[in-house]
Amino acid sequence: MNIQVISSVNEARTDDLQHKTVIVIDVLRATSTILRALDAGCSQVIPVETVNQAKSLHRPGELLGGERFCKKIPGFDLGNSPLEYTSELVDGKTIIFTTTNGTRAIQKASKAGHILIGGMLNAEACARKAAMLYGDIVMLCAGTQDVFSLEDGLCAGLLIEELLKLQAEGLIRSAAGTGGGSLTVDDFGLVMLQAYRHVRGNLEGALLSGVGGKRLSRIGFHDDVVYCAQVSILDQAPVVRNGRLEAGMSLPL
Predict the structure, then answer these.
(1) CB atoms inside a 10 Å sphere around CB 91
(2) pLDDT tens over the chain, length 253 residues
(3) What keywords sit in the KW lines (predicted)?
(4) Are 212 and 153 within 8 A, CB to CB?
(5) What are the sequence ranges of the domains in the chain?
(6) Does the global pTM surpass 0.85?
């Protein structure tokens, strides 16, 4: 099983993702917000690339969520702060969701065999889900404005660490479909693994020191960064199917 880490959505080629398991990562904040919304009980999240697409799909009773340049889109019900997505607001609701980088990365992976939503919040569950699918894994870091983001790379390193633990336990599938398979990690992934290991004792501090963390803190979203830095507090690994994510829409363990 080969693992490739792509540094930003701009570096990804749709055709190169075909038939692979793609883990989309946008720690600050799209994938973290999607995970939070599903955990809070929303019935489904429909990720779209543009504001116009979101508005055209919107129906009465549904919620519009998302951001442009870190700010809630005018006329939308919710922004891109995971802490906004409480059970009181989203339980049982459909959320149509668009962000500057994260939902674009999801769309870029549309030809993948499987699309998983990954973050620090669900790292262990996401790695286990990916390990159940025999085939190559691509970790697609969304980045920010087509530039690599530290927090996404660190999350990729964390996911690789979790996959290596599963390999040590004999839980990575081989070509024959049995346990005992091996992992091969590309050079950028190895760098991110070492970066994660260097800061894992203070992930919150690492995220707050990055460009994205500093920007969010400066405009009032410090608590979002702190929340998104938590590791494996959510036991779910949602899968994008038919352009949407539903509560409980996960591959069986």
Answers:
(1) 13
(2) 999 999 999 999 999 899 999 999 999 999 999 999 999 999 999 999 999 999 999 999 999 999 999 999 999 999 999 999 999 999 999 999 999 999 999 999 999 999 999 999 999 999 999 998 878 999 999 999 889 999 999 999 999 999 999 999 998 877 656 667 889 999 999 999 999 999 999 999 999 999 999 999 999 999 999 999 999 999 999 999 999 998 654 444 4
(3) Hydrolase, Magnesium
(4) no
(5) 2-241
(6) yes
DSSP assignment of the chain, as one string?
Answer: -EEEEESSGGG--GGGGTTSEEEEE-TTTHHHHHHHHHHTT-SEEEE-SSHHHHHHH--TT-EEEEEETTEEPTT-SB-S-GGG--HHHHTT-EEEEE-SSHHHHHHHTTTSSEEEEE-GGGHHHHHHHHHTS-S-EEEEE--BTTB--HHHHHHHHHHHHHHHHHHHTT-S--TTSSS----EE-HHHHHHHHHHHHHGGGHHHHHHHSHHHHHHHHTT-HHHHHHHT--S-S----B-BTTBEETT-----
